[in-house]
């Protein structure tokens, strides 16, 4: 794929993503204005959908890195991985994390007043997931510049971290052990 067509394709993807975010914000505002008392379950649904999208990306991106490590730098395969990683990060993972945090914080405030040991532990786990998100975003930049120095084994191990954090978060939310 040429650089120009790649940039045009990426530009179109970014426009679609921006339009999607605007639609989400407008729809959310309309839901809130139409029925402020009934907004909580809608906010929870949007939060869960965003979490699923965020987790899908967080589980897939390190797996792409595992395969990207084996691609010859500058090869068509390596360039394809760069496009896939950038689009996944910018088009899915970043917006999903943003929506997750926005609605999660609102739910924590509105539903629990930021009270409860389980909630504090969950927020800590989500902060750790966000830190991993930042680490992976940095790795996307390194791969884009052909500066990755980590072996495939490293990315296989990193690939397990979101799963472990997800298990902790789900148990905290469902069981509320403390």
Structure description:
- The chain is an all-alpha fold.
- The chain has one domain.
- Helix content is 85%, strand content 0%.
- The protein contains six helices and no strands.
- The protein has helices at residues 3-34, 39-70, 76-112, 117-144, 152-158, 161-175.
- Helix 4 runs antiparallel to helix 6.
- The longest helix is centred in the middle third of the chain and has 37 residues, at 76-112.
- It is flat.
**What's the story with the biggest beta sheet?**
none
* Element pattern in H and E: HHHHHH
Structural class: mainly alpha
Shape: flat
- Strand residue percentage: under 5%
Low-confidence residue ranges: none
The Rg value, from CA coordinates, equals 18 Å
Distance between the termini: 53 Å
For the secondary structure, the number of strands is: 0
**Helix run count:** 6
Task: Tell me, rounded to a whole number, the average pLDDT.
Answer: 92
The overall number of domains is: 1
Helix content: over 70%
């Amino acid at each position: 794929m040429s650089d120009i067509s790649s940039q045009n394709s990426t530009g179109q993807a970014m426009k679609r993503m921006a339009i999607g975010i605007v639609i989400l914000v407008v729809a959310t505002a309309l839901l809130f204005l139409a029925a402020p008392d009934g907004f909580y379950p809608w906010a929870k649904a949007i939060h869960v959908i965003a979490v699923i999208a965020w987790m899908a990306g967080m589980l897939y991106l390190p797996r792409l890195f595992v395969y990207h490590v084996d691609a010859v730098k500058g090869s068509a395969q390596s360039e394809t991985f760069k496009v896939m990683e950038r689009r996944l990060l910018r088009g899915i993972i970043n917006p999903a994390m943003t929506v997750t945090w926005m609605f999660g914080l609102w739910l924590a405030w509105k539903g629990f007043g930021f009270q409860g040991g389980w909630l504090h532990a969950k927020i800590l786990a989500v902060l750790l997931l966000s830190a991993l998100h930042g680490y992976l975003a940095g790795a996307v930049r390194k791969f884009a510049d052909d500066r990755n120095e980590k072996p495939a084994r490293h990315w296989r191990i990193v690939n397990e971290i979101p799963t472990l954090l997800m298990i902790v978060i789900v148990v905290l939310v469902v069981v509320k052990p403390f």
